[in-house]
Amino acid sequence: MRHGDRMDNFDPTWVKTAERPWDPPLVHNGLARAFRTGRTFRTLLPFPIHRVFVSPFLRCVQTASEVVAALCAVDDDPIAKSSSDVVSIDPSKVKVSIEYGLCEMLNRKAIRRDVAPKDGIFRFDVPQLEALLPSGTLDRSVRVYKELPQWEETVMGARTRYEQIIKALVDKYPSENLLLVTHGEGVGVSVSGFLEETAVTEVDYCAYSELRRPISCKNESFTAGNFEVLTKSGHTGITLDSFHKP
């Protein structure tokens, strides 16, 4: 899933005074869109989401917080528009972890050089970010990538990273349904990395893909089959284009 609507794309002047111009928050509509998407998951998916993994960028953590609030709301009030309207949640439903491997592409294609940190080091106050998540849902025990990628990683390097983290997380929790909250490129890879002769041409805010694979368990070990991409072009905010390899 991609994050919601980011501040700098709606207020171009925001970066001029921002302390962290490379890490914009969501605008109000972005928070509302994320909450609506969480409600969609809750009401339309024929299965529960057990775990959420999220990029450390603020816009993604805010998105995850809204989604999880919608998933865990005790009384699903139809007029609720964001997490601030949720009276109480059941934190036992979903566990959330921050995962560096889901972070934005750390290169100039995704982050302009004039807003990136001058020393090329992206710093995150993880405890502060974790405090934004709904109370009782945090799980600190999981982190596949212990460090962020280096600034100026290649596009292909970032795409490989996204594919690797998807596989690593689902292998770690083979019997659970996972939601990964990341960036547009990561969502694109979740389709193009597992569906041959398909390019992703557009990923809207809060767009999401859906993948599944067969799992067989025997003697406390599991065997996984290949991923099947269930996403159809235009249905969940992702536009696909087919091509034939030469």
From TrEMBL:
<dbReference type="InterPro" id="IPR051710">
    <property type="entry name" value="Phosphatase_SH3-domain"/>
</dbReference>
<dbReference type="Pfam" id="PF00300">
    <property type="entry name" value="His_Phos_1"/>
</dbReference>
<dbReference type="InterPro" id="IPR013078">
    <property type="entry name" value="His_Pase_superF_clade-1"/>
</dbReference>
<dbReference type="InterPro" id="IPR012398">
    <property type="entry name" value="PRIB5"/>
</dbReference>
<protein>
    <submittedName>
        <fullName>Uncharacterized protein LOC111304566 isoform X2</fullName>
    </submittedName>
</protein>
<dbReference type="InterPro" id="IPR029033">
    <property type="entry name" value="His_PPase_superfam"/>
</dbReference>
